[in-house]
Design goal:
Strand content: under 5%
Structural class: mainly alpha
Shape: globular
Largest sheet: none
Radius of gyration: 23 Å
Oligomer: single chain
Number of helices: 7
Number of strands: 0
Length: 157
């Protein structure tokens, strides 16, 4: 990727031994490359200014990484819940599913809701929905059969 940026900018392609150093320096986007990128064509901006709650690029990157980690965790939790059902697995699923849904619906709000007041209302509704979802799943786990047993009962129909 770094070599492609330099090739497009008209700079010579670096040797393999220089690629490790080049990867770190391109992450900072030196002034020369910024100027070349600005005049190389219209830039397509897929995201605007940082959203509320993500004041820095590092926070947004950490949030993105956390979203992917929860998604991968769910991939492991679902078969584990089938093989080892129990209260710990039920509450783990309740937390992971609620967090996954909260972040997913948050992205829908970010993409499709515009204007200050509608965004605030949508985010408030999202937090209420997520809290009620988590509380409902915990209530179901504590007072009823639990998520794992309920899914097993549905599959046995």
């Amino acid at each position: 990727m770094a070599a492609l940026v330099l090739l497009r900018a008209g700079l010579p392609r670096p040797r393999a031994s220089q690629m490790a150093l080049l990867g770190r320096t391109l992450a900072r986007r030196p002034a020369l490359l910024a100027a070349v990128a600005d005049r190389s064509g219209p830039a397509r901006q897929s995201h605007g200014a940082p959203q509320q709650g993500h004041g820095s690029s590092k926070a947004a990157s950490l949030h993105w990484t956390s979203e992917r980690a929860v998604s991968v965790l769910l991939l492991g939790l679902l078969p584990a819940a089938y093989l080892y059902p129990g209260p710990a697995m039920d509450y783990s699923l309740a937390a992971a599913l609620t967090l996954h849904g909260h972040w997913g619906l948050g992205q829908v709000i970010t993409d499709y809701v515009h204007g200050d007041t509608p965004i605030k209302l949508a985010n408030t509704g999202l937090y209420v929905l997520s809290a009620v979802t988590f509380a409902g799943l915990c209530y179901f786990n504590y007072h009823d059969v639990g998520i794992c047993k309920a899914v097993a009962m549905l599959w046995s129909l």
